[in-house]
UniProtKB/TrEMBL annotation, chains A, B:
GO molecular function, one term: isomerase activity
Highest taxon, organism lineage: Bacteria
Protein name per UniProt: Sugar phosphate isomerase/epimerase
Gene3D superfamilies reported for this sequence: Divalent-metal-dependent TIM barrel enzymes (3.20.20.150)
InterPro entries to which the protein is assigned, alphabetical: IolE/XylAMocC-like, Xyl_isomerase-like_sf, Xyl_isomerase-like_TIM-brl
Organism in which the protein naturally occurs: Nocardia speluncae
SUPFAM superfamilies, A to Z: Xylose isomerase-like
Lineage: Bacteria, Bacillati, Actinomycetota, Actinomycetes, Mycobacteriales
Keywords: Isomerase
Ranges where the Xylose isomerase-like TIM barrel domain occurs: 38-274
Pfam families: AP_endonuc_2 (PF01261)
Length: 290, 290
């Protein structure tokens, strides 16, 4: 089969799963080959890859597996770790490897989880992200890869990512061409933002929406906030409203489902995908169909 | 002794605890009389009261206890619960009682925790806050009480408060005079906000900062996010930077310490206050002294 990477088809209710992408974090126990097989058998159009599963077999082999299955790679996750004061070179080297891997895998989008706070100086940590983004952007641009800045929920500001809102990600992206630095719209992280509609519109107008990722916010939260994500429909997020904003912003790319959830991880991967398809069709897709 | 409510003294390094206020939630096991006694013996200038401890003895008795101890009441916590579609009258009645109690207690500031989402319709829940604020504001204004809108951390948007940023609180406050609707600057809830400096400046310029509340963000978080607050210095918040912004915004009121933390609750109240004083003097006060 030929590569279908970067072919973004219009959303279509008659072919609802062409734009649906399984992120390998959702079926965490599966190897890359198993996840690709599961996604392809389920009729999905794409897969989002985490580097741990890519590294197990190497990017070349991973790319061949995906290509042979006829899937797109909607994104590679993740670059980042840009906030530490001391290991600048290590971080830059690792990100360049991630950029190379993204190119090998045939995806344009490298999701960037930029890192938390090494100390109490939040502004300084954020400034380091700006600096290191400037050091990475030329390398990414030469290889046709977009650094997709992911705002993480503010509860992860200290330990995982000092980018906390879509507005902030857009400000950080602004110095660069839209094809070099983008932003991730992940419902779990930004659904609460009172200014979200305007931010999604701005991201779309700038051509910077790298990925639309969906999962739900469970209420009450789980004891580990990292695992408090749920299948669409199991929490409080209104995918119709946010989906309309994403649609109105012009996004026509894949929709990735990335769920960190101990119960889902313990379940059967094929059943998880079937539930995901049903929820996507019922709750997410209608708002995205023009 | 005469009431010293609403006398806001300048911050003073030589009399460092005149503007320090013990919120009764910090010494959760203490009755109101015990907390007042503890605060007064420790030389604090004020106390922040939760309604549960006021209700146990009634507002008149509570007011007398505080007055006799020579303390100010920096705020009453809390009104709110404005987001439910069905119990509008109950909520309004309860808030009017809270306004009356605030007036009896001699504080101007009634902290409003507006409530979470009864369903998936976030915008509708926020609109109900606007509507019910309009219904409460005249009653508050007549009694000289300010409704102090508290943005809660976005991780509480679903279950506790649909006001998630200071910017949003200011927008909600905007239709009302500054003496009728204000905002709470609580470090735990808003420290992560990339736009915080401008928002604090705006709140100050509008004369709307009802309260500056300090406690730290623990990293890693505790299993119950509600209890993930820590004593200043035990987490990641930079009180110097935020304190300078609060100072520059013109705030000269009391500084409340409100910590929900199981370990602190289990400790001896007098020791908690001594630690609080030391951390306040070392980490919080210097930035507030002009």
């Amino acid at each position: 089969m030929t590569s279908v990477a970067a072919q973004h088809l219009p959303f279509d209710l008659d072919d609802p799963y062409r734009s649906l992408s399984l992120n390998t974090a959702t079926t965490k126990r599966w190897t890359l080959a198993e996840a690709v097989d599961g996604a392809a058998r389920a009729g999905l159009g794409a897969i989002g890859l985490w580097r741990d599963r890519v590294d197990e077999i190497g990017a070349d082999t991973a790319a061949k597996i995906v290509r042979d299955a006829g899937l797109r790679v909607s994104s590679l996750c993740r670059g980042g770790f840009l906030t530490q004061p001391d290991d600048r070179q290590t971080a830059l080297d690792d990100n360049r490897r991630a950029i190379d891997d993204a190119a090998t895998l045939g995806t344009q989008e490298l999701v960037m989880v930029v890192g938390g706070m090494p100390d109490r100086k939040l502004a300084a940590a954020r400034a380091r992200v700006d600096e290191r983004l400037a050091q990475l952007a030329p390398y990414a641009a030469e290889r046709g890869i977009r650094l997709a800045l992911e705002p993480l929920h503010p509860m992860f500001c200290a330990d995982r990512a000092v980018i906390s809102t879509l507005a902030q990600a857009l400000t950080m992206a602004q110095p660069y061409p839209a094809e070099t630095v983008g932003v991730v719209v992940d419902t779990f992280h930004i659904w609460w933002d009172p200014a979200l509609e305007a931010q999604i519109a701005e991201a779309g107008a700038a051509g910077r929406i790298s990925s639309y990722q969906v999962c739900d916010w469970l209420n009450p939260m789980t004891a580990d906030p990292l695992l408090s994500r749920g299948m669409m429909g199991d929490g409080v997020i209104d995918f119709t409203t946010i989906g309309r904003w994403v649609r109105a912003a012009g996004y026509r790319g894949d929709v990735e489902v990335e769920i960190f959830n101990a119960d889902i991880w313990a379940g059967d991967g094929r059943e998880v995908i079937e539930t995901m398809k049903q929820r996507y069709r019922d709750l997410v897709l209608p708002a995205l169909v023009g």
